[in-house]
């Protein structure tokens, strides 16, 4: 059971995010952040969508990010497990509010810098390259309350100051960077994606696309700064990927899928090509958006990324007849159920060929190296009588997606690396659950925050170790 040989310098590893793994939410001088306000339970979605304003913590709710899986205190153990699997890359993120607790300070929190230096030095000890996201669904709460988050142009100044601090403080330890995680998710989950909360009667589309413009300016400036600090730095953008298939060959469905695809790729078009695409004018016109730009913005946007990174969990389906009543509630990106593929326990479509299609689409469009930085299966893992977790379902999912990656490489796609999502069990961003597990390593923690946090290797741990050792050849 082999695939096309992966490049010798291919980066194999896994991914976590600060807001879903670190915990220690008020330790080391860290300030409150947007994710710290998002509870587990019935109010979660309303808060994530920016429909329910939540600027203070409530005593009757549980907030999974506050402790998460304790990576803040367990990072040495966790990185050692990654090294045991043979990782050559570890994707993680920096909590903005750990370096700038309020977000608008002029000088950073040195305790926060020391923590991340220790993490990256631990990676270097094992020969693991950090791939670091600057903003992974994580905005300092003070910037939301005082400035309205990314709707405010001042955020560009705050973010670029923070970015420069990261590039300078971790120079020589980190050379692979991502600016904003899944930047297109802002359109679907505005508070978790970009710290946006809406007032009654406000034009939400106008706010979201204006906020996105500010993020795009900040991303381009950060890319320029990274290259100024060290020309060896490589900076990528990050897309919540997955092609939209037409639900049928009816022309109206094909047109609907094209429109959804353009909406999904708009921000990456800007980051990878250096300008708004021609279709943006009609998209903004149809949505009644009047984008406010400053003089020089078009020049700033020409600082394009070095590579395009993306997540891929599932493909999507679109038709001319899509509405709130017939789309899946399994994911914030709305999609019709595809009758030709199986779904996970959480209703996410399982479509390995869709990964090959997505990779070909992205490279045809951008002609830049790709990096698959999230891919995995969320599932309930139940230990057997011996305490072992035989997650053959996860192995089956990953095997077929890695095979699809190999096929795409054979198609001529330059792929830099692969970081499986949630390489160690973490809090699910979508639901706030621990029971929706992705990792090769089981963490003793439940949906109510109870458990010892003890780590335990799953069957997939040993399987992935074998995959990496064989450079993707042995998928048995």
TrEMBL record:
Active-site residue list: 374
Family statement drawn from the similarity comment of this UniProt entry: Belongs to the glycosyl hydrolase 1 family.
GO CC, alphabetical: cytosol
Molecular function as annotated in GO: beta-glucosidase activity
SUPFAM superfamilies assigned: (Trans)glycosidases
Keywords recorded for this protein, A-Z: Glycosidase, Hydrolase
InterPro entries, per database record: GH, GH_1_N_CS, Glyco_hydro_1, Glyco_hydro_1_AS
Biological source species: Aeromonas lusitana
Annotated protein name in UniProt: 6-phospho-beta-glucosidase
UniProt record, GO biological process: carbohydrate catabolic process
């Amino acid at each position: 059971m082999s695939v096309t040989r992966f490049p010798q310098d291919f980066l194999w590893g896994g991914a976590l995010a600060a807001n879903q793994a670190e915990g220690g939410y008020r330790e080391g001088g860290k300030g409150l952040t947007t994710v710290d306000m998002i509870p587990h339970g019935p109010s979660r979605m309303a808060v994530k969508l920016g429909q329910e304003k939540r600027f203070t913590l409530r005593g009757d709710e549980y907030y999974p990010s506050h402790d998460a899986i304790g990576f803040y205190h367990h990072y040495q153990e966790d990185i050692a497990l990654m090294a045991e699997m043979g990782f050559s890359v570890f994707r993680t993120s920096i909590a903005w509010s750990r370096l700038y607790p309020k977000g608008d300070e002029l000088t950073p929190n040195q305790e926060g810098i020391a923590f991340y230096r220790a993490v990256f030095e631990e990676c270097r000890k094992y020969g693991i390259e950090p791939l670091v996201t600057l903003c992974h669904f994580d905005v300092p709460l003070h910037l939301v309350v005082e400035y309205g988050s990314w709707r405010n142009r001042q955020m560009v100044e705050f973010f670029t100051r923070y970015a420069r601090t990261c590039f300078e403080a971790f120079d020589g330890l980190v050379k692979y960077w991502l600016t904003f995680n899944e930047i297109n998710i802002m359109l679907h989950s505005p508070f978790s994606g970009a710290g946006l909360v809406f007032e009654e009667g406000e034009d939400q589309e106008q706010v979201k696309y204006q906020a996105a413009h500010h993020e795009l300016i900040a991303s381009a400036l950060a890319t320029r700064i990274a290259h100024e600090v060290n020309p060896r730095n490589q900076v990528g953008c990050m897309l919540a990927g997955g092609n939209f298939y037409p639900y049928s060959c009816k022309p109206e469905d094909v047109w609907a899928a094209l429109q959804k695809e353009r909406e999904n790729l708009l921000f990456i078009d800007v980051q990878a090509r250096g300008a708004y695409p021609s279709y943006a004018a009609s998209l903004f016109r149809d949505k009644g958006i009047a984008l406010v730009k400053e003089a020089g913005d078009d020049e700033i946007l020409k600082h394009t990324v070095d590579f395009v990174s993306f997540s891929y969990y599932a493909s999507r389906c679109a038709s001319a007849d899509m509405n709130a009543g017939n789309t899946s509630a399994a994911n914030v990106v709305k999609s019709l159920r595809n009758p030709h593929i199986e779904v996970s326990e959480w209703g996410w479509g399982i479509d390995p060929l869709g990964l090959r299609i997505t990779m070909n689409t992205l490279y045809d469009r951008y002609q830049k190296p790709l990096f698959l930085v999230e891919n995995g299966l969320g599932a309930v893992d139940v230990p057997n009588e011996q305490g072992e977790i035989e997650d053959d379902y996860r192995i089956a999912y990953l095997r077929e997606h890695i095979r699809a990656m190999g096929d795409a490489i054979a198609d001529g796609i330059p792929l830099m690396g692969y970081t499986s999502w949630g390489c160690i069990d973490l809090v699910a961003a979508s639901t706030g659950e621990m029971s929706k597990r992705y990792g090769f390593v089981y963490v003793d923690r439940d949906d109510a925050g109870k458990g010892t946090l003890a780590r335990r290797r799953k069957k997939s741990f040993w399987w992935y170790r074998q995959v990496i050792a064989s450079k993707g050849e042995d998928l048995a």
